[in-house]
Amino acid sequence: MMKRTIAICVFSLVAMLGKAQQYSYPMPEYIPTQENLEHREAFQDMKFGMFIHWGIYSVLGDGEWVMYQQKIPFKTYQKLTKFFNPQDFDAKEWVQIAKSAGMKYITITTRHHDSFSMFDTDASPYNIVDATPYGKDPLKELAAECKKEGIQLNFYYSLLDWAREDYGFGKKIVDGYPVETDWDSYIEFMKAQLTELLTNYGEIGVIWFDGHWDRKKANWHYNEIYSLIHELSPTTLIANNHHLQPIPGEDIQTFERDLPGENKGGYSAGVKVSQLPLESCATMAKSWGFNLNDKKFKTTKQLIHFLVNAAGRNGNLLLNVGPMPNGEIQSEFVDTLKEVGEWTAKYGESIYGSRGNVIKPQPWGTITQKDKVLYVHVLNPTQEPYIFIPELKEKITSATSFDGSLKIRFKQVKEGVFLYPGEDFDTDIDGIIKLNVR
User: Fold this and answer.
1) Which letter does DSSP use for residue 53 in this model?
2) Tens-digit pLDDT profile for residues 190-217
3) Which of 157, 228, 261, 433 would give a disulfide with 376, using CB separation of 3.0 to 4.6 Å?
4) DSSP string for 104-146
5) Distance CA 153, CA 147 (A)
6) What DSSP state is assigned to residue 83?
7) Hey, how many other C-beta atoms are within 10 angstroms of the C-beta on 286?
8) How far is it, in rounded angstroms, from Cα 154 to Cα 105?
9) Cα 267 from Cα 46, distance rounded (Å)
10) What are φ and ψ of residue 240, in 5° steps?
């Protein structure tokens, strides 16, 4: 009886967790256009992008959540606008940093949870043009430079708002709506800003939503918001960092601080990997926004491994920098990205345009594939004199080091493939073996 009771409880818990990973409100059927599918494919080919968290919070140098974490009243927090004058912002420099690192797209915060808009908007006076001494729209400059350099521009947009009365932060949700607020007004505000973002800056690759998790039971009117985006810009893809299963209308599945299928960051419990294009987002240190005391910088090797492991799981890596209040990207990030760029310039063939999920992740590493070429990424050298690839069925015709200078001995059996790299095989950061298959 006890075992049966435990089994019933476990089953009920699993069912509850499964239900918790769904959006509760009706969504219209979504049939992506051929153009949309082509842009999904192009997004998957890019593999590597730069995430930029930048706003008036950078003035305090304590991350993008400083208003909430330090419990700063909004009327007090607003004073930061008078100190935000990023005279050293240079869109060309930002784009060159990203491009030199091998990044193919940039996703920048247009409005974060603090309600401040980093672009010229008629929907709110609380924006960088109207409320700061800087008085210019940095997204205009960034859009022009991205277009010039062939870098795709994407916009992050916060659903959560700590300041607006019509959002009513902290209000209880009843029947999908926060009490004592004008939720419909907030939805219309967001639609007005999204319209501006999709009509004033040229072609935008992705709208990247965040903050849904603040109101998991709310009716976010995604049926209206997603339809608006698809109507205004049919090629623009939609991503939503809601930590749920993908919602109809979305084109990308995101994983915060995690690889697809993992939950080390703690945000992906119960979430299954979908067939949509996948993207992992991660920071170069700990914070997303500029943090003066954050010294937990990831090494070049760690970042390359994250990129390779994401590609091996058929995903992209969106790697974050938090520019300083003067508009510069701090030197620690720039120096590391330069080293990452040296690696991508040499080995990018094994990443860009590749697809993953050739095999399950292995203790030694992962595999990416392009056409009839498999790239075996040996990230963690084994103690044995061989690398074993389980359940690989394709017939191998040749095996070499990445540059072709070293022939690799191999043995293909029913259970998989044994590779014998030898002592001269370099595995310092990522030892890559190139397999040609039939």
Assistant:
1) -
2) 999 999 999 999 999 999 999 999 999 9
3) 433
4) -EEEEEEE-TT--BSS--SS-S-BHHHHSSS-S-HHHHHHHHH
5) 8
6) G
7) 13
8) 7
9) 25
10) -140, 120
